[in-house]
Amino acid sequence: MLYRESLNNLMNMLHKTHPHFIRCIIPNEKKASGVIDAALVLNQLTCNGVLEGIRICRKGFPNRTLHSDFVHRYSILSADEAKASKDPKTSADAILQALVKSDKLKEEQFRIGHTKVFFKAGVVAHIEELRDKKLNEIITGLQSSIRYYNTLAECDARKKQLNAYVILQRNIRSWCVLRTWNWFLLFGKIRPQLKCGKMAEEMAKMVEEQKALEAEVAKAETERKAKEDLYNKLKSEQNRLLEQLESTKGGSASIEEKLVKLTSTKQELEKGLNDISDKLSEQEDRNAELERQKRKALQEVENIKRNIELADGNLLKSVEQKEAKENQIRSLQDEINAQDETIAKLNKEKKHQEEINRQIIDDLQAEEAKQAQAARLRQKLEQTLDEMEESIERERRIRIETEKAKRKIENELKSATETLEEMTKIKQEADMSLTNKEADLHALNVRIEDEQALINRLTRQSKENASRIIEIEDELEHERQSRAKADRARSELQRDFEELNDRLDEQNSQMQVQRELNKKRDSEIVKYRRDLDELNMAHEDQLAALRKKNNDQIAHLTEQLDGLQKAKVKIDKEKSVLQKELDDMNAQLDQDSRARVEQERLAKQYEIQVVELQQKVDEQTKQISDFTTSKGRLLNDNGDLIRQVEELEVHLNTVNRAKAGISSQLTEARKAAEEEARERNELNATCKNLQHEIGQCQEMLEEEINSKDDVQRQLSRINSEISQWKTRYEGEGLVGSDELEDLKRKQMARTMDLQEALSVAQNKIISLEKVKGRLVQESEDARSEVDRHLTVIASLEKKQLAFDKIVEDWKRKVDDIQKEIDATNRDSRNTNTEVFKLRSALDNLTEQIEVLRRENKNYAQEIRDLNEQISQGGRTFNDLQKAVKRIEQEKDELQHALYEAEAALETEESKVNWIRVRKQNYIRVWPLFRYYAHKSKCNKSDLMLKSGFRKKKKNLRSHEKTIRELSNPSR
User: Fold this and answer.
1) Rg of the chain's alpha carbons, rounded to an integer?
2) Which residues form a coiled coil (predicted)?
3) Cα-Cα-Cα-Cα dihedral sign, residues 241, 242, 244, 248
4) DSSP assignment letter at 180
5) Is the distance from CB of 245 to CB of 251 less than 8 angstroms?
6) Which of 147-156, 208-217, 252-261, 327-336 is predicted least confidently?
7) Do 884 and 284 form a contact (C-beta atoms < 8 A)?
C-alpha cells in the first residue's frame, strides 16, 4: 500500500510538470524508507552529470520570459519606453536599455531573443526588487496627494464653519439689541394694523375669479369644437356624395336638391364665422383703448411717487450722513473683533496641523516598516500554502468526529447561559441594595455638613457686619461730597436745557410748515384716488358689456348648432337610401378586387414568414450557444462554492476547538463567581452593621448639637440680661460697686461652667466625626471590593458573548453558502424552462407584431386628420384667450396702482406720528442724558458735553430712520 501511494504521488507530480529527462537516484544502500545518505546521493549526481548541468545552466541564461509578459510586468520601471511602440520585442528592448542607462542593470546580465528575454541567475530577483521599490514610491506619492486633498477639504469646511459662527454671533447680537429696543417693539405692534398684509387675500380673490373665467372659456371652446366637427363632417359628406354622383354618371333631381341644401347650410355657417371674426376685431379695438387709459393712469401714479420721493429725500439727507459715520464705526469695531477671533482660531488650527503632520510622519515610518515585514511574510505564506493544502485533506476526515463534539458542546453552552442569567439577576438585586444604602449614607453626610456650615456662617456674619458698618460710614462721606458736585453740575445743565428748549421751539415752527405741505399732498392724493375710482368703474362697465356680448354670441351659436343637427338627420336618411343603391353597384367590383388582393396578400405573407423563420433560427442558435457558455460558467462557480464550503468546514473545526477551551474557562469562571457571591453576602452583612452604627452615632451627634445650641442660647440670654442690668444700674446709680462686682463674679462663674459644657460637647462631636470617617472608609473599601468582583464578572460575560457571536457567524456563513448552491441549481433549471418558453413566446410575438403594424398605420392616418381639425379650431380659441388675458392684466395693474397710492398715504400719516414721538423722546431722554454725562465727564469742559449731546442726537436720528424704513415696506 505504501509503495502504491508513493508511486501515485510521483506520477501525479510528473503529470503536473513537463520534465525533459528523469534521473533515478538510490537514497541509501540499506533499502530503508525515509533515510537519505547525503554522500551517496552527491556522488551519483556528480557521476550522472546533473551538477555539471546545473553549473552550465547558471553560467548561461537559466531564467527566461516572453516579451509580452516581460512588458506587462515590468513596464512600471520605464513607462515611456513601454508605450513607445506596439511591438512587445522593441518595447522590452527599450525598457532594458533604460535600466542599463540608469546603472540598474548591465548588458552582460541579459540577452534578447526572437520570442523571449533571457536572464542570468539572480537577475530576475534584482528586477523584482526594483519593481517593488517603484511601486512603493508610487503608492506613497498617491497617499500623500490624497491626504493633501483631504486636508484641503477639511480646511475649507472649517473656514465655512468659522464664517457661519460669525454670522450667527452677529444675528444674535442684533436680536439682543432689538429685543429691548422700544422703537422696534412699537413697530411690531403697529405692523398688524397696516393694510399691506391684506394684499394676499385680495390676490386670492382675483385668482378665484380668474379660474371661473377660465372655466367659462373652456366651455365655450368645447362648444366651438363640437360645431367645427359638425361642419367638417357635413363637408366630408358633401364631397363623398359628389364623388358618388360622378361614379354613377346619372344624376337625379333629388340629388341636385340635396346639393343645393348643403351649399345653403355651408353659406350660413360661413356667415356665422364672419360675424364671429368681426366681433373679435371689435374686442381687440376695445382692448387697445383700455391699454391707453392704463398707460395714462400709470404715468399719473409715477408723478405722484416722484413728488413723494423728493419730499422724503429732503428729510433724510441730513440723517443719512450721520448714520453712515456711525455705521462705519460699528463695522470697524465688528471687523476688529472678528479679526481677533480669527487670529485666535488660526493659531489653534496651526497647532493642530503641526500635531497632525507629526502623526503623519510617524504613520509613514510605521507603514514602511509594515511593508518590509509584509514582503518577508509573503515568502513565508507561499511556503505555508503548500502545507495547508495537505492539511485540508487530513481535516476532512476529522470533520465527522468534530460535528458530534459540537452538538455536545452546544448543549453544555445552553446550560451555562441559563446559570449566567441567574447570576445576573442576583447581581442586579445586590446592586439595588448597595445603591439604596449609599443614598442613606450620603443623606447623613449632607446633614452633618449642613450643620457645620451653619456654625461657620454665623461666625462669618458677625465679622462681616462689623466690616460693613465701617464701609457704610466711608460711603456716607463719599456721597456727601458727590452731592455737592452734583448740585454744581445741575446748575450748568439747567442752562444747557434752556438753550435746547429754544432750539426745539424753532424746530416746532419748521414742523408746522411741513404739516401744511403734507395737507396739500393729502388733498392731491384724494384727487388721484377719485380719478382711479372713476377709471375702475369704467373698466368694470366695459367688462360687463363684453360678458353680455359673449353670452349673446354663445346663444346664437347654440341655435345654429340645433339647426345643423336637424339638417344632419335629414341628410343621414337620404344617405342611407343612396348607399343601398351604390352597394348593389359596387358589390361585383368588390368581389373581384378582394380575390385579387387576397392572393397578393397570401404571397407576401408567405415571403415574410420565410424571412422571419430564418431570423428565428439564427437567434435560437445564438441563444443555445449563450446558454451553453452560461452553463459552463455556473458549473465552474459551483465548483468554487464547494471549495469554499470545505474551507469553511475547516474553519468550523478550529472554532469548535476554541469553543471547548472557552467552555473550560467558563466552568472556572462559574466557580469564581460562586466564591464572589459568598464574599458579597459577607460584605452586605458588614455594611448593614456599619449602617446601624452610623445611625447610632448620628443620633448621638444630633443630641450633642441640640445641647450645644441650648447652651449658646442661655449664654446669649445671660449676656443680654447682664448688659441690661449694667446699663440700668449705671444710669440710675441704684447699686453700689461692691454688689456689681459680686454679680460679675457670679456671672463669670456661670459662663465658665457653660464654656466647659461647650468644650465637652465639642470633644464629643470630634470623637463622633472620627468614628464617622472610619466607618465611611470601611464602607468605601467594601464598595471597591464589590466593584472589582463586578468587573471580573462583566469581563467573563463579554468573552462568552464574543464566543457565541463567532459561532453564530460561522453557522450563518455555512447556511448562506448552502443557499447559494441551491439557488444556482434552481437558476440552471429555470433557465432551461425559460428557453422553451422564450421560443414559444417569440412565435406569438411575431404574429402580434404584424397585426399591430397594420393597426398602427390606420391609427396614424386618423390622427393626422384629427390634428388638422384641432389646429384650425385652436387658432381662434388662442386669440380669444389672449384678449381675455390682456383685459385681466390691465385690471391687475390698475388695482396695483391703487394699492401703491394707499400705501403712500399711510406712509405720510406714519411720518406725522413719528415727528410727534420724536419730540416726546427729546423731552424724555434729555434729563437722563444730562445726569449720566455729568457723572462720567464732570471734570471735562462744556465743549465735551456739547459734543456728547450731539453724538446722542445723531444716534436718536439713526434709530428714527430705521423705524421709518421699517414702517415703509413698500419702498
Assistant:
1) 56
2) 196-623, 666-728, 807-911
3) positive
4) T
5) yes
6) 252-261
7) no
**pLDDT classification of 419: cutoffs 50, 70, 90:** low
Burial degree of 297 (CB within 10 A; 0-12, 13-18, 19+): buried
Query: Of 436, 354, 316, 133, which is closest to residue 958 (Cα–Cα)?
Result: 316
> At residue 732, what are phi and psi to the nearest 5 degrees?
-90, -25
> Can you tell me the distance from the alpha carbon of 329 to that of 324, in angstroms, rounded to the nearest whole number?
9
C-alpha span between 309 and 899 (Å, rounded):
17
Nearest to 873 by CA among 215, 267, 262, 226: 226
Q: Which residues of 530-566 are buried (b: 16+ CB within 10 A; e: fewer)?
A: eebeebeeebeebeeebeeebeebeeebeebeeebee
47 vs 27: CA distance, rounded Å: 15
CA–CA gap between residue 300 and residue 306 (Å, rounded): 10
| Region 677-699 average pLDDT | 70
**DSSP letter string over 632-675?**
HHHHHHHHHHHHHHHHHHHHHHHHHHHHHHHHHHHHHHHHHHHH
* Nearest one of 604, 551, 410, 528 to 903, comparing CA atoms: 528
CA distances (Å), 69 to each of 255, 275, 407, in order?
95, 91, 53
Q: Which tens digit of pLDDT belongs to each residue from 589-642?
A: 677 667 667 767 776 776 676 677 667 667 766 766 676 676 667 677 767 767
Tell me how far apart the alpha carbons of residues 741 and 753 are, in angstroms, rounded to a whole number: 18
Mean pLDDT of 399-424: 68
Structure-block grid coordinates of residue 447: 446633614
Nearest to 608 by CA among 844, 846, 841, 857: 846
What is the C-alpha to C-alpha distance for residues 891 and 207, in angstroms, rounded to an integer?
12
d(CA 115, CA 707): 115
Instruction: Note whether 261 and 567 are within 8 A (CB).
Output: yes
d(CA 190, CA 967): 8
**C-alpha cell of residue 549:** 356680448
The three state secondary structure string of 410-436 is HHHHHHHHHHHHHHHHHHHHHHHHHHH
Could you tell me the maximum CA-CA distance found in the chain, to the nearest angstrom? 173
For the cut 60, the answer to whether the pLDDT of residue 803 exceeds it is: yes
Three cell numbers, residue 208: 378665484
CA distance 827 to 595: 52
pLDDT band, residue 167 (cuts 50/70/90)? very high
Q: What phi, psi does 106 have (nearest 5°)?
A: -120, 150
Buried b (16+ CB within 10 A) or exposed e, 161-180: ebeeeeeeeeeeeeeeeeee
Give the sheet arrangement for strand 116-119, strand by strand. 63-66, 116-119, 110-112
pLDDT given at position 121: 86
Torsion angles phi and psi, residue 294, rounded to 5 = -65, -40
Which of 136-140, 495-499, 849-853, 959-963 bottoms out in mean pLDDT, i.e. has the lowest?
Answer: 959-963
> Cell 359628389 belongs to which residue?
242
- Are 921 and 956 in contact by the 8 Å Cβ rule? The answer is yes
Contacts of 479 (CB under 8 A, 6+ apart): none
Q: Confirm if 116 and 122 have CB atoms less than 8 A apart.
A: no
**What is the average pLDDT across 355-372?**
70
